[in-house]
């Protein structure tokens, strides 16, 4: 489901040659996934965390891209990571699923059925994924996004 973003994510990650940038991407990923904790960047080398949150991150980036394409005329996908970083700074991803539900209600009222179906599909998929990650998150004491 995340193939279009996986390519961008992979290219972005490959370009991060130094540890500082890699940690910055890791922190960004955790913030988008509502899993950020102080000093979490110390776990940057933990491959299990990259795998666990990488899929959620890519899924959320896809939805964020869809939202931008829906709301912003002439949205340029090349600036996607910049927009994500700006949204993180504004706290946009805090309570992300609630925001998606609110947008779905607004889109439904505007008759945007296809967009609403995409958003609802995202919410259903993320709820299933979060349930699957419950044991992993509990074992590591990670905060959980509310589906």
Give a short summary of the structure.
It contains 7 helices and no strands. It has 147 residues and is mostly helical.
Q: How many runs of DSSP E, i.e. beta strands? A: 0
> Any idea what the radius of gyration is?
15 Å
Q: Which structural class do you get from the secondary structure elements?
A: mainly alpha
Low-confidence stretches: none
Percentage of residues in DSSP E strands:
under 5%
Order of helices and strands: HHHHHHH
Morphology: globular
The first-to-last residue Cα distance is 18 Å
Give a quick account of the main beta sheet: strands, pairing sense, barrel closure: none
* Mean of all residue-level pLDDT scores: 83
- Percent in helix: 55-70%
**Count of helical stretches:** 7
Tell me the layout of helices and strands.
Layout: H1 3-14, H2 19-32, H3 47-71, H4 80-89, H5 96-109, H6 113-132, H7 134-140
Helix pairs in contact: 1-3, 2-3, 3-6, 5-6
What does this structure look like?
It is a single chain. This protein is an all-alpha fold. Helices cover 69% and strands 0% of the residues. It has helices at 3-14, 19-32, 47-71, 80-89, 96-109, 113-132, 134-140. The two termini are 18 Å apart. The mean pLDDT is 83.
Main traits of this protein?
single chain; 147 residues; mainly alpha; 69% helix; globular
